[in-house]
Design brief:
The complex is a heterotrimer of chains A (85), B (100) and C (231). With 85 residues, chain A is an all-alpha fold. Chain A has a domain of 59 residues. Chain A has 3 helices and no strands. Chain A is elongated. The N and C termini of chain A lie far apart (59 Å). Chain B starts with a helix and ends in an 11-residue tail after the last helix. Chain B contains 3 helices and no strands. Chain B has one domain: Helix Hairpins (Orthogonal Bundle), CATH 1.10.287.3510. Chain C has one domain. The chains are: A mainly alpha (85), B mainly alpha (100), C mainly alpha (231). Chains A and B meet through helix 1, helix 2 and helix 3 of A and helix 1, helix 2 and helix 3 of B.
Chain lengths: 85, 100, 231
């Protein structure tokens, strides 16, 4: 019963993080919420008895994809800032 | 309602919400985020449904592992293409729907 | 974004949720039991961890194609780089400008190098009997490379460095060679004899780890910078 409550809360957290990543006005915040989403999904994989997938999701899904997206958002900001000047 | 079914339904919500966001946004980076979240939702449905009321099943887990690597490869490539597009045209959306 | 577009998206989204949710809730239990069949097959596979057995023995063809996809992505990423030598210098300058150069990070990157390599090797070796394997180990190596790049060090520029290119290709070509070797002995593709299977799998995973690490790092490092050649 308690574990089901934990799963429901984690599921709710996943949905909230995903909605934030999808609909945030600021792109940087959206990417940060996407990384948070990735880490919560890694927790979900643990709950689903899939530790290998959890490792890969945390490292590749959240970590590397997050780094790539942050790099891209930073590049967008840098480029539009120099164009404004 | 078992643990696995909860996550399968969460996956359903993620796929539907991300699909809606993909349709609504024109900014390519936002579409890429939506695409990634849709993929993760599909993985959750795959494993959640396979393990609902059954033993933990390594086959869908291995497929999801493969899927995660393919998703990061395509995301990285999409980002490189997006950055070249942005450098060439200064726009963040494709031309036929550049109303943002 | 206009109203009609948002409304249409919401409607489609809700429709998809209802359809998928209905399908998930009304699914019929499939008549086969993959986990049971897998447990029976593990002794012949050469490894004891079921995920590794699935990835590199029972569905090894999928893994081979996955490495091919990763390789194609990296090759396209490298092909889209600006070929002019001035662009490489500009990239170095951008990297120097955006590097984080605190003393903590500088010493941390030196300390973490042996630790992360050891962790990657351990994950690789442990994948045979507990969670771990080539992908996780490759991700740790890629993370090390990303850390070094963020700290400003020059790595994975793929300039004229032969070893980086060899590392990229070693995974796929090694796996392909191991996959086609049984054909020479009259066995089907990827059908290794049970007595050698464990050793072959660990060897393939070793080259895969190096390749995956360099590929993921290369994907991160090949990002275009402002000033690159316009298409």
């Amino acid at each position: 019963m308690l574990t089901l409550l934990f799963d429901l809360l984690l599921g709710l957290g996943l949905v909230v993080a995903a909605l934030g990543a999808l609909w945030s006005r600021d792109l940087f915040r959206a990417v940060v919420l996407f990384i948070v989403f990735g880490l919560l999904v890694a927790l979900a994989w643990i709950r689903l008895q899939a530790p290998d997938v959890a490792l890969a999701e945390a490292a590749i899904g959240a970590g590397l994809t997050g780094a790539l997206l942050l790099d891209a958002v930073g590049h967008l900001r840098r480029t539009s800032r120099t164009e404004d000047e | 309602m078992s643990t696995e079914l909860v996550y399968a339904l969460v996956g359903v919500i993620l796929v539907a919400a991300a699909f809606g966001a993909f349709m609504a946004h024109t900014h390519l980076l936002r579409r890429l985020l939506a695409f990634n979240i849709m993929g993760t939702g599909c993985f959750l449905i795959l494993v959640g449904l396979a393990q609902h009321e059954r033993a933990p099943d390594p086959v869908p887990q291995a497929l999801v592992l493969t899927g995660i690597v393919v998703a990061v490869a395509s995301t990285a490539l999409a980002l490189i293409l997006f950055r070249r597009w942005f450098a060439a045209t200064g726009r963040t959306a494709l031309p036929e729907e550049d109303d943002e | 974004m206009n109203r009609a577009r948002v409304l249409a998206s919401v409607a489609l989204s809700v429709g998809l949720a209802v359809m998928l949710g209905g399908a998930v809730l009304t699914r019929t239990v499939p008549p086969f039991d993959l986990a049971g069949d897998l447990a029976e097959g593990i002794p012949r596979s050469g490894v004891t961890h079921p995920i590794t057995a699935v990835l590199l023995q029972f569905r090894s063809y999928d893994t081979l194609l996955e490495i091919a996809v990763l390789l194609v992505a990296v090759v396209v990423a490298l092909a889209l780089r600006d070929p002019r030598p001035a662009a490489a210098a500009a990239h170095d300058e951008v990297r120097a400008n955006t590097a984080i150069t605190t003393p903590v990070l500088a010493s941390l990157t030196s300390l973490l190098l042996p630790l992360m390599i050891m962790t990657a090797v351990y994950l690789l070796w442990a994948g045979a009997f507990q969670p771990g394997g080539a992908f996780q180990a490759g991700a740790v190596l890629a993370a090390l490379g990303v850390l070094w790049r963020v700290a400003g060090r020059r790595i994975a520029s793929f300039a004229a460095n032969r070893w980086q290119h060899v590392g990229l290709l070693a995974g796929f070509t090694g796996f392909l060679a191991a996959a086609t070797a049984p054909l020479l002995f009259g066995r089907p593709l990827l059908a290794w004899p049970s007595s050698y299977a464990g050793a072959i799998i660990v060897a393939i995973e070793a080259v895969l780890t190096v390749s995956i690490g360099i590929s993921l790092l290369g994907l991160f490092a090949s990002a275009p910078e402002p000033g690159d050649e316009r298409v």
